[in-house]
Specification:
Elements (H helix, E strand, L loop, with lengths): L2 E7 L4 E3 L19 H10 L8 E4 L4 E6 L2 E6 L3 E5 L2 E3 L5 E3 L4 E6 L6 E5 L30 E3 L10 E3 L10 E5 L10 H7 L2 E7 L3 E5 L14 E2 L4 E3 L7 E3 L6 E2 L3 E5 L4 H5 L6 E2 L1 E3 L2 H18 L3 E3 L6 H6 L9 H4 L3
Parallel strand pairs: 13-22
Antiparallel strand pairs: 1-4, 1-11, 2-3, 3-10, 4-9, 5-8, 5-10, 6-7, 6-9, 12-23, 13-20, 14-15, 14-21, 15-18, 16-19, 17-18, 17-20
Length: 336
C-alpha cells in the first residue's frame, strides 16, 4: 500500500474528512474539514469521494516523503505545492514516485489547504469518520514526524486530472442568522456586530476563534442553561468579546449565542487568517437555505470540470482559475 511519511508539519496539520455525525448527543464533536469545498476539490482530483479523508494543512504546511508511487493534489484558495523541488499548479494531480518529496502549504492569504491522497486517506475510521479531534484524541493523535498516511489501494486509472475551471465562490460579508439567544443582548448588540469592524485574533484554532473589536453588551446576566451548539455559533461570554465556534467545537455551552454563521459561509470564514478583518451581514432563513444549495451545486459541479492533464498547462488556463475565490478581502471587509 502506498503512503506518505511525515517529515515535518505545522501544529495545525491533521487528517480530516467531511466529519463525524450521529454522536453529538453523547458529547462527541463532529470535527471534519474546515473548508468542505476545497476538501472536495482535492479529493476529486485524486479520484476519491468528495467527502473522503485528506490532509488538512494549516500555517507551516507539511513536508512528506512518498512510500511507493502515489498521486496527490493540493486545493485551497491560496496554496503552494512542490514535488521534488518542482512547482506544481494548484488544483492539479501529480504522480509522486517512491522516495519523492512533497512540500505543501497554504499561502499567507488563507488559513487552510487540502492535500488529496490517491483514492482518499485510508486510516482506520473512528465512529464512522477518519477526522482527527485534537482535544479528545478521537480519530487518532496529532500528526508528528514519522507518521504514516496510507493511500487507498487499487482501482486507479493511469490518468492525471486537473480542473479546467474553478467555480467562483461567494464574496462579501460573512452572512449570519440572529440567535438563538439574541434576546439575551441589548437592543444595539446586533447592530454593533454587523456595523463595527472586527478582526480575527490570534486566539484561534479548529475549535473556534475570538474576535477583536467592540464588546457586545448583554441584557442582564451572561449565563444560560447549557444548550446545543452548532458550527458557526457566535457565543459571547461575560467579557462581551464574541467567539465563533468551528468544527472542533464543544457540543453544548452555557454562554448566550447572539448569532450563527450560515452553513455556506463557514468555510469562507475559516479561511480568513488571524489578524485579518471580517464583516457580518444578517440574512433571512430562506437566503441561508439558498446559499447552502448553491454551495452544494458548486461541489457537485467540480466533477464536471475535471479534465485529463494532457490538456496543456497554458498561462491562459492558469490565469482563468479563481485561485483565491472564497476569501473575504481586507478592502472589501472594511468597506473601502
Amino acid at each position: 500500500m502506498s503512503a506518505l511519511i511525515v517529515k515535518a508539519c505545522g501544529p495545525a496539520t491533521s487528517i480530516q474528512d467531511r466529519g463525524r455525525f450521529g454522536y453529538q448527543r453523547f458529547g462527541v464533536s463532529p470535527a471534519g474539514a474546515m473548508d468542505r469545498f476545497h476538501l472536495a476539490a482535492a479529493n476529486l482530483l485524486v479520484m476519491a469521494e468528495a467527502g473522503a479523508a485528506a490532509l488538512e494543512l494549516g500555517p507551516g504546511g507539511a513536508r512528506l516523503t512518498a512510500e511507493g508511487d502515489v498521486t496527490v493534489a493540493l486545493a485551497g484558495p491560496a496554496c503552494t505545492l512542490e514535488v521534488d523541488g518542482r512547482q506544481i499548479a494548484p488544483f492539479t494531480a501529480v504522480r509522486v514516485t517512491d522516495g519523492g518529496t512533497v512540500v505543501a502549504r497554504p499561502a499567507p492569504g488563507a488559513a487552510y489547504a487540502y492535500l488529496g491522497v490517491e483514492g482518499g486517506i485510508a486510516t482506520a475510521p473512528d465512529m464512522g469518520s477518519r477526522s482527527m479531534h485534537r482535544r479528545s484524541g478521537i480519530g487518532g493523535e496529532p500528526l508528528t514526524v514519522g507518521a504514516r498516511i496510507p493511500a487507498t489501494p487499487g482501482g486507479r486509472e493511469a490518468v492525471l486530472l486537473c480542473l479546467s475551471e474553478l467555480p467562483r465562490g461567494e464574496t462579501g460579508p460573512i452572512r449570519i442568522l440572529p440567535g438563538p439567544q439574541d434576546d439575551h443582548f441589548s437592543d444595539e448588540a446586533l447592530a454593533i456586530l454587523t456595523s463595527a469592524g472586527y478582526r480575527l485574533s490570534g486566539q484561534a484554532d479548529r475549535m473556534g476563534v475570538r474576535l477583536d473589536g467592540p464588546t457586545l453588551p448583554h441584557r442582564g446576566g451572561y449565563n444560560i442553561v447549557s444548550d446545543g451548539i452548532v458550527d458557526g455559533s457566535i457565543q459571547v461570554p461575560g467579557d462581551g468579546r464574541p467567539i465563533v465556534l468551528l468544527r472542533d467545537r464543544q457540543t453544548t455551552g452555557g454562554y448566550p449565542k447572539i448569532a450563527t454563521i450560515i452553513s455556506a459561509d463557514i468555510g469562507r470564514f475559516a479561511q480568513i487568517p488571524p489578524g485579518a478583518p471580517v464583516r457580518f451581514e444578517i440574512v433571512t432563513f430562506e437566503q441561508a437555505i439558498e446559499a447552502a444549495r448553491r454551495l452544494q451545486a458548486m461541489i457537485e459541479g467540480l466533477a464536471t470540470a475535471l479534465v485529463p492533464l494532457a490538456a496543456p498547462l497554458t498561462s491562459e488556463r492558469l490565469l482563468g482559475l479563481n485561485l483565491i475565490g472564497g476569501v473575504t478581502s481586507a478592502t472589501e471587509a472594511i468597506g473601502v
